[in-house]
Design a protein that fits this description.
Layout lengths: L4 H12 L4 E4 L3 H5 L1 H16 L5 H9 L1 E4 L2 H5 L4 E4 L5 H14 L5 E4 L19 E6 L8 E5 L6 H13 L3 E5 L8 H17 L5 H12 L5 H8 L1 H9 L4 H15 L12 E3 L5 E4 L8
Parallel strand pairs: 1-2, 3-4, 4-5, 6-7
Antiparallel strand pairs: 5-6, 8-9
Helix pairs in contact: 1-3, 1-4, 8-10, 8-12, 11-12
Length: 292
């Protein structure tokens, strides 16, 4: 459910591990872009997976993916539906109401929400006992962590079904034992990124020097603004726009403006840094250096 950056990756990861996949998106232009996304992923699967990759296996995966602009048709035989739409609570509720009205009884419901609590929209599906989170990281074929989390209403069978499905599709699974916004990963990552965004938006420092300071002080290779490039500006902007802190929301507005100028992160080979086709960092985007 959703043919964007991560939705398309979730679909390919499933197909690459033998699953038959239908991608639904309400916007035909998102489905039209899938062939470009397959070629981007083909390159990275080949580069990153070594002997696990073959052209034949990837072509077979592409053949196992079909698309639909009709939700009822897409879901008519689904064992599992994974929702990967933007981080907007009302949109999540709307989408899950639509899914709940047409999905077969057998269908397991899963959301890839990054920062919202599944319990805040599970009731909209009409079947909160079937809804579980399976949270993925960007470039999931190599960053192959799946965080599985239920709500107080999620059945043990749903959690186990999600865990089993994730493992079958090549993921290393962490089960979150209590509902927590951000799971393990984003509970640590989002405050870190927002702190960096506030430093920038308030004129304390520029992305490159903030990253350099962090890396030198901690011996970590990736600073927060390189982290924004990996996460992707669209996801980061959606999360920031819903934050209670006005400075974080201002940074989210800055990200949205950057998106409109064509800067979306490593996916487009330009975010806070420029990247080559292998995803290697080439240098900072100088236009963001406002203070140094």
């Amino acid at each position: 459910m959703g043919a964007g950056l991560l939705g398309s990756q979730i679909a390919m990861q499933a197909a690459f591990h033998g699953k038959e996949v239908v991608i639904y998106d309400a916007f035909p232009e998102a489905l039209d872009k899938l062939s470009e996304r397959w070629e981007w992923m083909r390159y990275h699967y080949q580069k990153d997976l070594g002997n696990a990759y073959s052209e034949g296996r990837f072509e077979d995966a592409v053949a196992r993916v079909s698309t639909s602009g009709d939700l009822a048709e897409a879901l008519k035989n689904a064992d599992i539906v994974i929702e990967a739409v933007p981080e907007n609570l009302e949109l999540k509720r709307k989408v899950w109401k639509q899914i709940g009205e047409v999905a077969p009884d057998k269908t397991l419901f899963a959301t890839n929400t990054s920062s919202l609590l599944p319990s805040t929209f599970a009731e909209a599906s009409g079947h909160p006992e079937k809804l579980v989170a399976i949270h993925y990281a960007n470039m999931i074929w190599i960053n192959n962590l799946a965080e599985v989390m239920g709500t107080e209403q999620t059945s043990a069978e749903a959690v186990e079904g999600a865990r089993k499905y994730a493992e079958e599709t090549g993921m290393v699974v962490s089960v979150i034992h209590k509902e927590q916004p951000g799971y393990f990963t984003n509970s640590l990552l989002i405050p870190f990124l927002h702190a960096a965004g506030k430093l920038y938006i308030n004129g304390v420092g520029d992305p490159e020097e903030i990253d350099r300071n962090w890396s030198l002080a901690t011996s970590m290779a990736i600073g927060p603004f390189a982290g924004f490039d990996i996460v992707g500006f669209r996801v980061a902007a959606n999360i920031a726009s819903a934050d209670e802190d006005p400075d974080v929301r201002r940074f989210g507005e800055f990200l949205q403006e950057a998106i409109e100028e064509g800067y979306t992160g490593r996916e487009s080979r330009q975010g806070f840094y420029y990247y080559d086709e292998d995803g290697n960092k080439l240098g900072a985007v100088e236009k963001w250096n406002r203070y140094s």
